[in-house]
Specification:
heterotrimer, A mainly alpha, B alpha+beta, C mainly alpha, A: mainly alpha, MetI-like fold, 2 domains, globular, B: D-Maltodextrin-Binding Protein, domain 2, Dipeptide-binding Protein, domain 1, 12-stranded mixed β-sheet, 17 helices, 20 strands
């Protein structure tokens, strides 16, 4: 991960609105391709999801159910209704539980986002801070644990480290809860679905504490990988010669190390860091699946994997598409951000 | 550089050491000693729906068992039928009329009084496709399988309900004690409409509070419960924790009071732990190996016999079930009507099997496909381990075997079309009646391509006739004789080999009292309570 | 600065590990598949079985050793698939017409958004689970990441001054590639290869851990871990060791990066 440059360099010179328009067009096209891909994948599934959910199926009744669900309509009609349903948020019902897919997702998505966002934040803050402090203070020994941690994040399977952390901190030491999002003896905070925000808004200190306790281990587990990737990228960037020249120059002007590293250098290296996070969005979500499994976290990852395993077609169709759309947002946005940041970088260098 | 390696290895070792401490770590008592107001139980999956008429997964039934009851039910810990919401019942001599006197003074959780009209709702909505509560996407599969002989449901007077049958059905009374006809409050349909499956209203010891899907179902004490003992806890929480290790960790950390669905090999530590008690008993299930008769080579009876002799079923119980189970001698549990309690017709004889293979070199030319699956079931806690052991046995007599491992749904899809040579699968009883196993496995009616439960695709008129005859005979002795004949036909043709019967295992905190394992495999937590404090220490 | 000898020692170490791992195909003390020791199942280490016997009566050292070898080979196969596909895509994107390049970039943008685990799951709905299918799933899954990296390297090298000057001096086609581009691309590609190897191995064992490898007895570190997961409390080594083996193997590859 020595160098990473954004794809959107083409748009650098165009004004903002044109850039946005271009992105929008690209976005819609990708959305259509993705929805078609997912639709065809479901179509090509050899199994009949309706009869598989039943232990002792009766063919006539199954045909009736398929009719009610519109599964016997011609292909193009079903694709168009599928896309229309997705856009209008009419996501149908799960074949297994009969619950509205939209309601389920509105419960599971905040859970996963809370975990993923905090995981990334933890990873990035941890990685960046350690690397910058190590370079800024000249305490080179700090780099060793950073590299060690980086190596750990890239070489240790998530499911394995998750199990070990539970056994150590929850079972042996009893400091943290084993899994789940919240205590069952206590009513969970309501509102946005992000328990952290909800409990702060309602000013409920105890709920906040419970939420944080439950978040601790999963966030650390999920954050290891981004921490590793970010610190790796950062290290590679800091080794580049123009940065070292810049630091020498700034130091010569008498700036404090805090100002040099915490402000100028941080701003310069943030571009590649943002891109890396964008590129790794998919990998993060994959990590979230395993993390959610280990920590019994009621999130999207488990919901979708179960959906695929149960051949729960509406869950796969709309849930997966939503994930793709969200991940696309992240990738596009991070590309955009990186372009902006790189822009500054380009200007700085020419000065 | 070196030191970075050192750090990483150090970090790794630290974690591993901490982890190894668990092996020798003492049992630290973290469960609070006071009487908890909530009982928290964890299982491997969440309930799917809480509508008795439209579920078939054990977890939904286990949840509903705390909130719903039927006209009749099982005496705790047995398969004997006793009146529940009916005060008494009467069966006419020709076996065509079942009359129930409804119990007085019972209220549903929403306050609706129980009477014949309210009871009829739960039957009507399943049998009558025009009924508004006959939800269009529900399968009502059990009605087809268990209750199809019910022709009419009549209200005799406000507290008397009568079922009129089209033909006698000896298995019906036990079926009526099973979950599909547990009584649902008709008011709940008026109130919730098609959201009724998520807002269960019954008559049971606990009533519904909240369902956090993929997390837990929360229930509370029903203060108006009609009989003793009343619910033992203010709150009952049934959590779902999919990963076995995580579930076990919750128990060891003292965050939950009981669990089920873990593998026997994971029990070794709990066995010696004074904090917990392991409840186990033979389950109503059979794990079997089917020969697909659609596969040409498996039509050879000699080959089927050789394979049956080669498999060491005792060894399966030891290594795949860790002793928590038994060899299945017959294709139905021996506690069932007409199923003998002996070693069965299949013998383990490697030498004879090997000799047969040597006589038929054509058997060894192509690898036999053994289809198996990944997810644990009660009969096979780890199906792939079973497959692995069977492969080794068959290779020992000279056959070649290729294991095809799919996840459960794909596996079902394959087996229901008979697309395999050998297939591993099992059956968990819906009702404690031999017909529920034998017709499922051997009736040609169940051998429909694509939806077969007779995955051997075994079709034999003699067998069909015997199975049909057994259902029409109300006399128990005569039924026994007929099932004996059916078993003889099975042993002669050998379309499948029963392998093991897995034990049902529930682990509870030792201070929990009043729990009885039900042979149906379901949990009834109604009578469960926490032992008083002074005796606890 | 690093000395030459230090570099050699480390490379020798890495090669030694690789050879040792691959020796798992020939040298295991017992047959890793045969359940020859059923009666001693779950017994601890002894002279004849250094790491004991697993739950199905197989020598555990043999299984781990073969498992490491299989994991390494499969990860290398994944890496080859990803590199092959992504360099093909880069070639199309760079030399094809502009709409073609746009389309490729767009598809890659989509691909990046999909987690490898879902790609694997979806693929395995259609393909019969097997090591080969896993390699395809992981290889395809990492294609987008590899594409983005290779494209950056390529553009960087292609636009570099020395390449431009060789071009001006009349060098083109294969010669240009062989003498001006390849030498400068090589270190980056090797670094990418190492990274992809580690990522692939982790994802492979992740998918195998979810039970998607087909034959449950196939010795792969993730599937060994899955098969033994139930013995976590009874015989913890059966679960700890596969993970540790994997981590140490990947650590070795990872750390060679600093000795480039």
């Amino acid at each position: 991960m020595a160098k990473t440059v954004s794809d959107s360099s083409l748009h650098k010179k165009s004004p903002l609105w044109r850039f946005l328009l271009g992105e929008l067009r690209r976005f819609i096209l990708i959305f259509l391709i993705a929805s078609l891909g997912i639709f065809l994948a479901i179509e090509a599934m050899p199994e009949d999801p309706v009869s598989l959910r039943v232990k002792n199926p009766d063919p006539a009744r199954i045909e009736e159910i398929r009719d009610t669900l519109g599964l016997n309509d011609p292909l193009p009609i079903r694709y168009v209704t599928g896309v229309r349903d997705f856009v209008t948020l009419e996501w149908g019902k799960s074949l297994i539980s009969g619950r509205s897919v939209r309601d389920e997702i509105s419960r599971f998505l905040p859970a996963t986002l809370e975990l993923a966002i905090l995981g990334v934040c933890f990873g990035v803050t941890f990685g960046v801070t350690l690397v910058l402090v190590a370079h800024g203070t000249g305490w080179r020994w700090l780099l060793q644990p950073v590299r060690g941690l980086g190596a750990l994040g890239l070489t240790v399977p998530i499911f394995w480290i998750g199990l070990l952390l539970i056994l150590l901190f929850s079972v042996q030491l009893g400091i943290t809860p084993v899994g789940g999002r919240f205590d069952f003896a206590y009513a969970s905070p309501k509102g946005t679905g992000f328990f952290l925000i909800d409990s702060i808004i309602s000013g409920d200190g105890e709920a906040l504490l419970i939420t944080i306790k439950h978040l601790l281990l999963p966030v650390v587990t999920l954050g290891l990988y981004p921490a590793a990737v970010v610190s790796g990228t950062l290290e590679a960037r800091l080794g580049e010669s123009y940065l070292q020249r810049l630091v020498t120059a700034l130091r010569a002007r008498g700036f404090s190390p805090f100002r040099i590293w915490g402000k100028h250098v941080l701003r310069l290296v943030s571009g590649p860091v943002v891109t890396v996070i964008g590129t790794q969005a998919g990998a993060l979500l994959g990590g979230a699946v395993l993390t959610e499994t280990v920590y019994s976290w009621p999130g999207m990852g488990r919901f979708l994997v179960d959906g695929v395993l149960n051949r729960d077609i509406f869950v796969i169709q709309h849930g997966l598409l939503l994930v793709v759309v969200l991940a696309l947002f992240v990738v596009t946005f991070s590309d955009f951000l990186a372009t902006r940041l790189d822009h500054q970088l380009a200007k700085k260098e020419s000065e | 550089m070196r030191s970075s390696t050192r750090y990483t290895v150090g970090l790794l070792l630290l974690v591993v050491t901490g982890f190894l401490l668990i092996g020798c770590g003492g049992a630290s008592d973290k469960l609070e000693n006071r009487i908890p107001s909530a009982f928290i139980f964890a299982r491997g999956a969440d309930a799917q729906k809480l509508d008795p008429a439209d579920v078939d997964d054990g977890e939904s039934v286990n949840t509903m068992a705390q909130m719903f009851e039927g006209l009749v039910g099982f005496v705790p810990g047995t398969l004997d039928v006793e009146p529940h919401l009916a005060a008494s019942y009467e069966i006419s001599n020709d076996g065509l009329q079942y009359t129930f006197k409804i119990r007085e003074g019972v209220l549903f959780h929403d306050g609706t009084p129980l009477n014949a009209e309210a009871a009829r709702f739960s039957f009507d909505r399943q049998m009558n496709p025009e009924h508004p509560a006959h939800f269009p996407t529900a399968s009502f599969q059990y009605w087809q399988n268990l209750y199809a002989d019910i022709q009419r449901v009549e209200i005799v007077d406000s507290m008397t309900l009568r079922l009129q049958l089209s033909r006698p059905n000896a298995a019906l009374l036990t079926s009526l004690a099973s979950f599909p006809v547990w009584l649902v409050s008709p008011e709940s349909f008026n109130k919730y409409g098609d959201q009724m499956p998520f807002n269960p209203v019954g008559t049971g010891p606990y009533r519904f509070v909240e369902w956090r899907s993929n997390e837990a179902v929360l229930m509370e004490r029903n203060p108006d419960y009609w009989r003793e003992p009343q619910a033992g806890f203010d709150r009952l929480v049934m959590r779902s924790i999919p990963l076995n290790t995580s579930r076990l960790s919750e128990l060891l950390a003292g965050k939950i009071h009981g669990l089920d669905g873990i593998q026997p090999s994971e029990l070794s530590d709990l066995k010696d732990d004074p904090r917990f008690e392991i409840h186990q008993a033979p389950g109503m299930n059979v794990g079997y190996l089917a020969f697909s008769l659609l596969s040409e080579r498996m039509q050879d009876l000699e080959l089927r016999k050789a394979i049956s002799m080669a498999i060491d079923r005792e060894n399966l119980v030891d290594l795949a079930l860790d002793g928590y189970g038994s060899v299945a001698a017959y294709p139905a549990p021996s506690s069932f009507l007409g199923i003998p309690d002996d070693e069965g017709p299949i013998r383990h004889d490697m030498v004879a099997a090997k000799a047969m293979v040597e006589e038929h070199p054509e058997w060894t030319r192509k690898a036999i496909q053994l289809a198996t699956f990944g997810q644990p079931r009660t009969y096979f806690p780890d199906p792939s381990r079973v497959a692995s052991l069977i492969r080794n046995d068959l290779e020992a007599i000279g056959l070649k075997v290729e294991i095809i491992n799919r996840e459960f749904k794909s596996h079902l899809h394959t087996t229901r079309r008979g697309e395999f040579d050998l297939g591993l699968l099992g059956w968990m009883a819906d009702t404690p009646d031999p017909d529920n196993f034998l017709s499922t496995f051997f009736h040609s009616r169940a051998a429909i391509h694509g939806s077969a439960t007779n995955i051997s695709f075994y079709k034999n008129g003699e067998m069909d006739a015997l199975l049909d005859a057994a259902l029409a005979v109300p006399d128990l002795e005569k039924r026994k004789q007929i099932y004996k004949q059916a078993l003889e036909v099975w042993a002669r043709d050998l379309p499948l080999i029963p392998l093991v019967q897995g034990n049902q295992i529930t682990v509870l905190d030792k201070r929990i009292r009043g729990y009885l394992l039900s042979p149906t495999g379901n949990h009834f937590f109604g009578p469960v309570y926490w032992e008083a404090e002074e005796q606890a220490n | 600065m690093r000395t030459l000898s230090k570099l050699r020692i480390f490379d020798a170490w890495a090669i030694l590990i690789l050879v040792l791992v691959l020796a798992g195909f020939f040298l295991t003390p017992h047959d890793p598949m045969s359940q020859a020791f059923r009666s001693e199942a779950l017994e601890g280490p002894s002279i004849s079985h250094w790491l004991g016997i697993d739950g199905l009566g197989r020598d555990f050292l043999s299984r781990l050793w073969r498992g490491a070898a299989n994991t390494a080979i499969l990860a290398i196969a994944c890496l080859a698939v990803s590199l092959f596909l992504s360099s093909g895509l880069v070639a199309i994107e760079q030399s094809g017409p502009s709409w073609c390049g746009k389309l490729v970039r767009m598809l890659v943008g989509l691909w990046v958004a999909l987690p490898v685990i879902f790609i694997g799951l979806l693929l395995l709905v259609f393909l019969r689970p097997s090591p080969g299918a896993l390699v395809l799933a992981v290889g395809f899954g990492n294609m987008a990441f590899a594409f983005r990296q290779i494209r950056v390297y390529w553009i960087g090298v292609r636009g570099a001054l020395y390449v431009k000057s060789s071009e001006v001096l009349g060098s083109q086609g294969w010669r240009l590639f062989r003498w001006a581009i390849w030498p400068n691309l090589k270190p980056d590609l090797f670094a990418l290869g190492r990274l992809l190897f580690a990522i692939s191995a982790l994802e492979l064992s992740g998918l195998a851990f979810l039970g998607l490898i087909g034959d449950p007895d196939f010795a792969e570190l993730g599937s060994i871990l899955k098969q033994n997961q139930a013995y976590l409390f009874q015989a913890p080594m059966l679960v700890v060791l596969p993970g540790l083996f994997l981590s140490l193997m990947l650590l070795t590859t990872h750390l060679t990066k600093f000795h480039r």
